[in-house]
Amino acid sequence: MGQERAALGVAERRARSQAACARLLNLPEMADLTGRTVAGYVALAARGELDPEPALAAIAARGGRVAYPRVAAPASPLAFHLADRAELVAGRFGLSEPAQHAPELAAAALDAVLVPGVAFDGEGRRLGLGGGFYDRTFGSPAGSGSQTRRPPLIGLCYDLQVVAQCPSGPDDVAVDVVVTESRVLRREPAR
């Protein structure tokens, strides 16, 4: 899947990213963004990831705040910090991330989270890069019994990354919505 994604030409990736970002901005989760915080990410261009930057710029222009994830340590959850894209620095795994001193927000304080991935399916299952960061951050604490507020998780990918079924384990956290350049897939809520 990663090879197919990376094989898309730069112009094709840009056009598909623009289309997916337009579709994302029309979601109910993106209505009335004034004072709300959306966590994004910086696409790994070398891997051909869909670029959320057009949506993140629009969110800021609509009065929203943009946070980016920061990897503190390999086995830790993600930390989210408010930052402008121009303020991001080189971090672990070749990621662009906020500096450690940027204002940090609790994951539960986010109003929506854009989640990258290698593949997604219609049930919201996601295949990431294998680090488990989003799963650790948004999964339920083991045995805690607490109902911590979890923001909507929105997978952002090219249509070619949507598969019939992604492998999933007990610790994997599904996204609520998958947005591509041509469609929106909503996971049925748990009953």
Could you walk me through the main structural features you see in this protein, from its secondary elements to its overall organization?
A hairpin with a 5-residue loop joins β8 (119-120) and β9 (126-127). The protein is built from four helices and twelve strands. α2 (10-25) packs parallel to α3 (53-61). An eight-stranded mixed β-sheet has the order 6-3-2-1-7-10-11-12. The termini are far apart. It has one domain (2-186): NagB/RpiA/CoA transferase-like (Rossmann fold). Helix content is 19%, strand content 20%. The protein has helices at 2-7, 10-25, 53-61, 133-138, and strands at residues 37-39, 65-71, 78-82, 89-90, 96-97, 104-105, 112-115, 119-120, 126-127, 153-156, 177-179, 184-186. With 191 residues, the protein is α/β, with parallel strands linked by helices. Residues 142-147 have low confidence and may be disordered.
Main sheet summary:
8 strands, mixed
Shape: globular
Q: Compute the CA-based radius of gyration.
A: 16 Å
Under the CATH scheme, the architecture is 3-Layer(aba) Sandwich
- What portion of the residues fall into strands of 2 or more residues? 15-25%
Q: In percent, how helical is the residue content? A: 10-25%
How would you state the average pLDDT, rounded? 90
| Helix/strand/pairing category | alpha/beta
Number of structural domains: 1
